[in-house]
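Notebook entry, structure prediction.
Reason for the run: the old model in the group folder had no record of what sequence produced it. Starting over properly, with the input documented here first.
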Amino acid sequence: MAEEERLTKAERREQARAERKRAEEEAARAAKKKRATNTIVGVVITAIVLAVVANAIFNRPEEIEDVIVLQATQVEAAQEAAGCVGQDGVVVEPRTHYEPGEAPAADAIYGSTLRPPAGGPHFSRTGPVGTFTNSPADERAVTHNLEHGAIAVWFQADALDGDQVNELEAWADSLNASGFESNIAGGGIIVSVYENPMSSGKPIALRAWGVALDCDSFDETAFNGFVARFFGTRGIAPERTLSPFPNEVMRLVDDRPDDAEGEGEGETETEGDGEGSTEGDAPAEGEGEDS
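New structure, fully documented this time:
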């Protein structure tokens, strides 16, 4: 206090100005630091947003950029050209569920019925969805996938060349990535090599629950037509509601004359809500005990 009292008014004013200047400089430095921090945060957020957008653009499956629209007449023509013939002798009952370690061999379960099967007894758990072109999927597991609305395509390895196998894989992978695969329910498109003789003698067998179509060669339109009619809620699988049909990915339009009778493997579904069935509404079984 004594020292301050000895300062003149001019000296006290100068001291006050110096203190204000220091305070202003400190405030300016703090503001500059805050602006720099906000700039860095903004750059990071912008980079994240751009990365997300770029990932959505460049990694987005091509098949979902445009809806696959199928015409019924085109599908029928493609299936005829591919040598596709609907198969009789489909057995779907009983729907016995076996624990994998306790199940009879596939030949014992399905030996006297249509092979590959389109229904019947099966494992208590579904098998994985995808392509199994080097090691065959288990028929007993795949049949449970069919019960949940999946589509299976089996082929004889010695009857198809590498290009056709690659086309089958690419086709299935594309549809699964676009919205057909359900990791929880086991729904989706399954492609697998088949080591046993097929009942029809043809090299490729398409299976949905209760429906069988065997073909001489792969044709994308022909196979898409089968998927459009019988996948998930479009088919007659007992638990088809576990695999809702992705209408945003594929549509099938019935462009046949009103008096034309459907040919091929089943009734044509149009651009509806995806809840249609070719043989009425089978009751959906509960998801809990065997999903």
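Summary: The beta strands are 68-71, 85-86, 97-98, 122-123, 131-132, 151-155, 189-193, 204-208, 211-215, 250-253.
The old model has been moved to the deprecated folder.
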